[in-house]
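The instructor's notes for this session suggest beginning with a concrete chain rather than abstract definitions. Hand out the sequence below and ask the class to guess, before any prediction is shown, which regions might be ordered.
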Amino acid sequence: MKKMKLFLVPLMALVFLSSCVSVNVLADYDKEADFKEYKTYAYYKTGIDRAQISDLDKKRILKAIDIEMASRGFTKSQDPDILVSIFTKEREQVDVYNNNFGFGRFGFGGFGFGGFGFGGFYNPWLYGGGFGPTASTRTEGSLYIDFIDNQSNALVWQGRGVGNLNNTKNVEKKEKRIKEFVSEILNAYPPAVAAN
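After discussion, reveal the predicted structure:
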């Protein structure tokens, strides 16, 4: 039993951490666009100004985009091939876990308060006598990165990343999470068909 417990704790931690880090990415593009022609970029100020996030987070996102664009051979220009814009969405996600594996809401031989309790028996796998549905709230965010052809003013590529935002007061963790979002999204550029 002890060996199983030693195995489950790291496994649960790994699942929890991986669920926090992952960013689900979707990308779409214009099949007519010639992505090999795009070498320079600038930011689409109107689009960036509309993004409903703090100016500090905008700065963090744009800095992360600059790093990723430079790693792909792009340079900033006053007369760019593409304009880069961002858009964000945020929503609260409520997860309800039904853990009715005990002896009732108020426990067996003890007392509890709506999901947490103090039971009259000892079981190393259970927290106490108060069993029932529990809920947790997390913030899920979407970051869109758009590439707009500067000549035609048409959207030619869009990447969207969705994942937990890890709301934190720690600035370093926030910057790291933003870099992960941007990096994962821009890994989908250029489209595989255009890269051949």
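Then share the key points. Residues 53 and 88 are 7 Å apart (CA to CA). The radius of gyration is 23 Å.
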